[in-house]
Design a protein that fits this description.
The complex is a heterodimer. Helices cover 77% and strands 0% of the residues of chain A. Chain A is mainly alpha-helical. The chains are: A mainly alpha, B mainly alpha.
Chain lengths: 74, 173
């Protein structure tokens, strides 16, 4: 039972589940607290790998584009 | 990093609790986009989409359910993965040294964070560890993973399945 949930949660968090499969998991996540808990566990654990990365600054123009897009109602 | 705050005009939608992480998070998010999209131009597009979505959805963020940086990372990741699903990015070209470096760089011993998933990843055999790390960090599909690992698709799928089982046990402790 929990084995199945971990496979689903990991497929979602790691990014194995894409497209329709991903959308299906997202729909299920809305009401499935047990799955939410497992997804959060996987996300919290793997976030450590992201935080271990060095920081890279995106080009400044992107932020101008983002703000311009928001102002234009994007 | 502060300079980016100036570009993001105050809005009732963006609460103070979101505002601070915003200064640093786009940098982390950008790195994640570059890694997953494997192309800086595509990464910039995805970052823009993610940051715009975050801006519009900021009022939905619930601080009681987690921290803002993690939430933004998830939104960013979802944008990147949807884009990958719609338009597969260029094939990844990681040589053996590149793969090992990508994997090992994230597994360095750091006493402060040693209790996290890296300890669990280290306990996996090297094959499993490589698969999981490449999927998460570089967004490889099973097919790309099979090529990268020079193994049949079925084997790669079963390695990942078993790796997830072992990680779940380790993380649950």
């Amino acid at each position: 039972m929990s084995e199945d949930l971990d496979q689903t949660a990991a497929a979602y968090v790691l990014g194995i589940a894409r497209g329709a499969a991903r959308a299906a998991i997202e729909t299920r996540l809305v009401g499935d607290q047990a799955l939410q808990t497992r997804v959060k566990l996987w996300q919290d654990n793997f976030a450590a790998l992201d935080l271990a990365a060095r920081i890279e600054h995106p080009p400044r123009e992107i932020f101008e584009r983002i703000v311009a897009g928001i102002d234009a109602g994007a | 990093m502060r300079v980016y705050v100036a570009y993001l005009k105050p809005s009732p939608l963006v609460t103070t609790r979101l505002f601070d992480p915003f200064t640093i998070n786009p940098c982390r998010s950008f790195l994640e986009c570059v890694r997953l999209m494997r192309d800086r131009g595509l990464a910039e597009d995805v970052l823009q989409e993610a940051m715009t979505r975050i801006w519009h959805k900021a009022h939905l963020f619930d601080a009681s359910k987690g921290n803002a940086m993690a939430w933004m990372a998830v939104v960013t990741r979802n944008c990147a993965l949807s884009r990958i699903a719609a338009t597969p990015p260029p094939s990844v070209s990681l040589d053996e040294a590149g793969v090992l470096a990508a994997v090992e760089a994230r597994l360095s011993d750091d006493p402060v964070t040693a209790a996290d998933v890296r300890q669990c990843l280290k306990k996996l055999n090297e094959k499993y560890r490589k698969c999981v790390t490449l999927i998460y960090l570089h967004g490889l599909s099973y097919e790309e993973l099979a090529t990268q690992m020079d193994a049949p698709l079925g084997s790669v799928k079963s390695w990942v399945h078993r790796a997830i089982g072992e990680l779940a046990k380790c993380m649950g402790k």
